[in-house]
Specification:
Strand content: under 5%
Largest sheet: none
Helix content: over 70%
Order of helices and strands: HHHHH
Radius of gyration: 38 Å
Distance between the termini: 105 Å
Number of strands: 0
Shape: elongated
Oligomer: single chain
Length: 185
């Protein structure tokens, strides 16, 4: 028990003695003397020693700030270009996969069905992930961010595939209806 009191007591004694022996720091080397002749001759009331404006520092600061703004602009353009390039590649992959399936099955409707299902599944995955992530934040659900994104993505994928088949069936029914209408006229 004696050792547990010893350390805090030591720090308290150091603090007390430090307060007793500490003094403010003074500058005895540079004593400033006031010359009244400078103050009388200067109209603005400031001495020449008070004007500490350095144009070189202002120039250097403006160059650094311009470089930072330029780097931010270039970085934003590069990020936007990379994002758009990824969208173009994904779209080309979806279109080419649908086209290859249409050639393989020798059916345009199968290729179109594949295209609709792929687009809906990708959209459902994105909407499901973002949606459950937002719902988790609003309602304070006990899910980690990764779990919310994964569960939302899987649910969105299943919903997107189902939505793709439903949209395809609706489009087929609309096309049959339009064929009947134009066949009667």
């Amino acid at each position: 028990m004696y050792k547990s009191i010893q350390i805090p007591l030591f720090f308290c004694l150091i603090l007390c003695f430090n307060v007793l022996i500490s003094n403010a720091q003074t500058d005895t080397v540079r004593k400033q003397s006031v010359d009244s002749s400078i103050a009388r001759n200067n109209i603005s009331g400031t001495s020449a020693a008070d004007d500490d404006f350095n144009a070189g520092l202002l120039l250097m600061a403006s160059v650094v700030i311009c470089a930072m703004v330029g780097a931010a602009i270039v970085g934003s353009f590069l990020a936007a270009f990379a994002f758009l390039l990824a969208i173009v590649f994904i779209s080309a992959g979806i279109f080419s996969a649908s086209l290859l399936i249409a050639f393989y099955k020798k059916s345009i409707t199968t290729g179109f069905k594949t295209f609709v299902v792929i687009i809906c599944s990708i959209g459902g995955t994105a909407i499901g992930s973002i949606g459950l992530f937002i719902v988790t934040g609003i309602f304070h659900l006990d899910l980690s961010n990764q779990t919310a994104l994964l569960i939302g993505g899987v649910g969105g994928l299943l919903g997107g595939v189902l939505m793709g088949f439903v949209i395809y069936k609706i489009l087929v029914l609309c096309m049959l209806y339009i064929k009947k209408k134009f066949a009667l006229v």
